[in-house]
Specification:
The complex is a heterodimer of chains A (about 290) and B (about 325).
Chain A: H1 2-16, E1 29-39, E2 64-77, E3 80-95, E4 97-98, E5 107-108, E6 110-113, E7 121-141, E8 153-175, E9 203-219, E10 222-232, H2 240-249, H3 253-273, E11 275-284
Antiparallel strand pairs in A: 1-2, 1-11, 2-3, 3-7, 4-5, 6-7, 7-8, 8-9, 9-10, 10-11
Helix pairs in contact in A: 2-3
Chain B: H1 2-16, E1 40-46, E2 49-54, E3 60-65, E4 77-79, E5 85-89, E6 96-100, E7 105-108, E8 115-121, E9 126-131, E10 134-138, E11 156-165, E12 171-181, E13 184-194, E14 203-213, E15 227-232, E16 242-247, E17 250-253, E18 264-268, E19 271-275, E20 280-285, E21 295-298, E22 307-310
Antiparallel strand pairs in B: 1-2, 1-22, 2-3, 4-5, 5-6, 6-7, 8-9, 9-10, 11-12, 12-13, 13-14, 15-16, 16-17, 18-19, 19-20, 20-21
The chains are: A alpha+beta (about 290), B mainly beta (about 325).
Chain lengths: ~290, ~325
């Protein structure tokens, strides 16, 4: 009977004891740099190449949108890695009046009252470079019971994302209310009221991400990882539309345009991070 | 190996699309928002006086009061396209008076009696005055086409009541006269256009209005001389100018000769102003109406004729 107990104890040990401590070759801390990318579906790049570019909305031009990251990781256990990541991106943002009825979150553009004829509006197409600084806090779970040893192998990742985004206005096309081609659509001190958009503001966003990835060793201490990641920002579901209409009704155009701009930044950041392929090269430090 | 291929692909696509953005329009705008709310764009006259209404149809002011006039009644008004001068007809002596938008009298043109209509040309340079069936000019003369103001044979009381001149120096005019038929007077309205261009054929059209017995007091019909014709921009899908106006309560226009109503519609500079005989104004953009808050304004006409001028454009 006792040999069965012994056998059972051996099975139990096999299930619960580790042959190695967490980390690869005893190294738990590692850093990675890399890029995450996807193709541009609805927005141009920072150099205005890509779909729906400024100002003509040219619908199709294949370009990628990419970001660069640096992350620091620590293997807390054989199955768990905690990471802090900084991600940087620079991309194009085209703000224009595009009231797509099938889109629950349409681009409401930027309007200013005409400086020439009361009651008319000038419509603005604005092209920004949008700089986004993103900090991610993630934990990666190595889920295969006997095949993984963090940080190598298959993992699922989830975590929180904090974004600070800032736009820099590069170009502005004005469609004047009284004449659609007036002043060659250029803004001017004489004819164009300011949009009131405060692009100096840092726009804060909080989101959550999840992904599936694989990490392997490609040389001594050097790792390569690939991952598919999805990030969602609940800010895109805010009630900007109602606030915007209120401001418009009350003639507060600077407020209206700021609401529209912030809403567009939310959309743009969401589109940028919605789905990404991540490739990173890391070094195991200690 | 596949991973390196993917990396190479990303690097190639990224570098290929690294062309710098070049500014096409610029970003310079005014420092602060300025609205054109304070601009008066519509002038009108009732028996109470002469008034101005802002372009946004949200404010009006009385410029001249007829309260101290011996014979207060509505008369013609003309607001200069520069929107700085206003001409109206004095109800007592029928002479044109030019005032600024604050009501200060600038000039009294006492030489032109019985003024039936007036209007500005070329900003505020020339005021043309229809007086005693002739067009006179205050300021530089206009080289108008040869006038066809001539009374038909057998006509009585021939009077040119309204005139408008467009940028091409075409002239539209309206006439009222009567003919005797037995013991009745039959009144006629006539409408004509003298085109400046010799290649265009002038227009002349007559309509009978009403018959009165010779002993009837025709003057009691206050709307008899309520008679306005104005050039109006065409609808976007037409390429000829329209002429809008009212003959008493008989409306005329290029396509509405036979409709009896007091309303008329003017189009200028992409805007449309409809004027109803009871003083209702409605202003909107001709196209792209979503880009404009349509405006309404009610003038209290007290069932008296309304004379109105609209100075839009810059």
């Amino acid at each position: 009977m006792s040999r069965y107990y012994l056998l059972f104890l051996c099975f139990l040990c096999a299930r619960t004891s580790f042959s190695q401590i967490p980390g690869y070759q005893g190294k738990r801390f590692f850093a990675e740099v890399g890029t995450s990318f996807w193709f541009n579906s609805f927005n141009p790049r920072a150099n205005n190449q890509g779909p729906q570019r400024f100002p003509d909305d040219n619908p199709r031009e294949f370009t990628l949108q990419e970001h660069y990251f640096l992350n620091l990781n620590y293997a807390l256990s054989r199955k768990l890695v905690f990471s802090v990541e900084y991600e940087y991106s620079k991309t194009g943002l085209h703000v224009r009046n595009n009231p797509d009825v099938y889109n629950h979150n349409p681009d409401r553009g930027v309007l200013t009252p005409s400086r020439l004829i009361d009651g008319l509006f000038d419509q603005h197409n604005l092209f920004y470079n949008l700089y986004a600084h993103k900090i991610n806090f993630s934990s990666s779970h190595y889920f295969k019971p006997n095949a993984n040893l963090a940080p190598l192998g298959w993992y699922v990742k989830w975590g929180l994302d904090v974004v600070l985004a800032k736009g820099v206005l590069l170009d502005q096309k004005v469609t004047y209310g009284h004449d659609a081609t007036f002043n060659e659509n250029k803004p001017s001190k004489e004819f164009t009221n300011p949009t009131g958009v405060d692009s100096e503001q840092l726009i804060f966003m909080l989101g959550a991400h999840g992904g599936l990835g694989y990490r392997t060793v490609i040389a001594n201490r050097i790792t390569l990882s690939t991952e598919v990641k999805m990030t969602l920002f609940p800010q895109i579901f805010d009630t900007a539309g109602i606030k915007l209409l209120e401001a418009e009704r009350e003639g507060r155009y600077a407020d209206r345009n700021n609401i529209s701009y912030v809403s567009r930044v939310h959309q743009r950041v969401q589109a940028h991070y919605y789905l990404n392929i991540v490739i990173g090269i890391g070094v195991l430090i200690f | 190996m596949k991973k390196y291929l993917i990396l190479m692909l990303i690097i190639t696509v990224t570098i290929a699309s690294c062309e710098k953005y070049e500014v096409q329009y610029g970003t310079e705008t005014a420092a602060t928002t300025e609205l054109q709310d304070g601009v008066y764009e519509i002038a009108y006259s009732t028996e109470d006086g002469v008034f101005l209404i802002t372009a946004g149809l949200d404010r009006s002011k009385m410029v001249v009061s007829f309260a101290n006039k011996f014979n207060p009644r509505a008369g013609r008004v003309a607001l200069s396209p520069k929107k700085d001068k206003l001409a109206y007809v004095d109800p007592d002596n029928g002479v044109p008076i030019i005032v600024d938008t604050a009501g200060n009298v600038l000039e009294e043109l006492t030489q032109y009696t019985n003024t039936n209509d007036l209007g500005w040309y070329n900003g505020d340079e020339t005021l043309y005055i229809l007086s005693n069936n002739q067009i006179h000019f205050h300021g530089p003369s206009l080289d108008l086409p040869v006038s066809s103001f001539s009374s038909p044979s057998g006509s009585q009381g021939y009077q040119v009541t309204t005139v408008d001149i467009n940028k091409n120096l075409d002239v539209v005019y309206g006439v009222i006269y009567y003919e005797f038929g037995g013991s009745y007077r039959t009144w006629y309205y006539a409408y004509g256009v003298d085109y400046k261009s010799p290649t265009r054929t002038d227009i002349y059209s007559t309509k009978s209005y009403a018959s009165y017995h010779a002993f009837q007091n025709v003057g009691a019909d206050s709307r008899r001389s309520y008679h306005t014709l104005r050039f109006s921009d065409p609808e976007s899908w037409r390429d000829v100018e329209e002429i809008s106006g009212v003959y008493g309560v008989f409306a005329t226009g290029r396509y509405t000769y036979d409709r009896f109503e007091g309303d008329y519609l003017l189009r200028k500079s992409g805007f449309e102003l409809s004027v109803s005989e009871d003083g209702g104004l409605f202003k909107r953009t001709v196209s792209n109406s979503s880009n404009y808050r349509a405006r309404l304004w009610d003038i209290d006409t007290d069932n008296e004729p309304l004379f109105l001028d609209w100075a839009i454009g810059f």
